Amino acid sequence: MVKSPALFVARRNLSRNRFRSVLAGLGILIAVVAIAALGIFGNVLSLGAADALGDIGNEVVITPNADEGFDELTERQVQSIERVTDDVTVAPIRTETGLVTRGTESRATTLYGIDDPAAIYEADEGRLPDRHTQGAILGSSVAEQLDAGEGNVVTIDDTTYRVIAVLEPVESFGPLTADDAVLLPENAIAGSGYEQVILRGEETGATAVAADAVRAELNAREERIDVFELSEITDEIDEFFSLLQSFLLGIGSISLVIAGVSILNVMLMSTVERREEIGVMRAVGVKKGEVLRMMLIEAGLLGLLGAVGGVLVSVLLAAGLYLTTPVELWILLDPANFFYLALAFAFGIGVSLLSGAYPAWKAASERPVDALRD
Asked: Measuring CA to CA, which residue among 358, 354, 337 is closest to residue 257?
């Protein structure tokens, strides 16, 4: 039993011109896939980049201003930085290069002289001391190449160190990524000054406040230091991906407009072909609103079929992306991706209804006597 005559007639009319209806629905399907897939693709790129960058947005790098003739940060300047900053970790670093050797294996590497490695790094093997006074801490790549671990002995230039820890591998980018470095006690690095000071906070806002305080304190009279807030990089990257996503969605929207024109054309042709039929319906008492509803249901069914198909194809494409690339599952399951699926679905149906509105109004508004006479 058919509860809605308008729905029954709409389904029958779509079945009459099945091939044309399939083509119109296919246009909506392609457009929905374009919007959903491009939106998801842009979001996956953005989340992947944010994941690779890690927490660098919460870091600030302070270096001497070489353009003004300053080549190191003094102990007094470091004390000033510690005094004017709150809620951030202050890590002064001395840097040089050296040759680290174990047995017959050796490699040139960067040496960091750092007093409190536990404030910045995490250990994969051994324990990081709060006060680094002896021993070497190997980056993960260095330990792997030298086949070294906690308790082994390595030679750095002419000095022998016992390995007290191996750092956890870091997949993200950062100014102090130490996979290819060795951490030594601060006094093991020649010189009395520091090449850089790292500020790290739990939140970007805290590091931004600290950066401003350091600038005000140390650059009050002359530009002695450069302060580089890494949040500037993440902000620019976020802006780039925001533009990219808007661009991709714009391309998908163009596809949807084209699909809408296709449905408009199908509905107009259907209206012309069924002009006499609609005239008879109106003559036997079918109301104008019923005709209007019937035509809109036809357009809505085309949009529904195309949108459902488009969402299913988009989900399959996302699954293919997960299976064939290193994209992690949590990135694909991000709520924003489901939003793009819902957005594409809603746009598919909405454009279909809008495209069918004019033909529906045209068919419902024609006088029965005019339709039957012609």
From this structure: 354
CB 247 within 8 A of CB 39: no
Alpha-carbon dihedral of residues 322, 325, 331, 334, nearest 10 degrees?
-40
Whether the CA torsion 108, 112, 113, 115 is positive or negative: it is negative
Helix axes 231-273, 18-53, angle to 10 degrees: 180
C-alpha distances in Å from residue 297, one per residue of 64, 75, 273, 359 = 70, 77, 18, 12
pLDDT in tens, 270-327: 777 777 777 777 777 778 888 888 888 888 888 898 889 999 999 999 898 888 888 8
Sign of CA dihedral 147, 152, 158, 159: positive
What confidence tens digit (pLDDT) does each residue in 338-360 have? 998 998 899 888 888 888 888 88
Contacts of 76 (CB under 8 A, 6+ apart): none
Residue 112: its H or E element: strand 105-113
In the structure encoding, which two tokens stand for residue 87, read together? 């809620």
**Does residue 175 carry a pLDDT above 80?**
no
Residue 253 identity (one-letter amino acid): S
pTM: 0.63
Rounded CA gap, 282 and 288, in Å?
Answer: 7
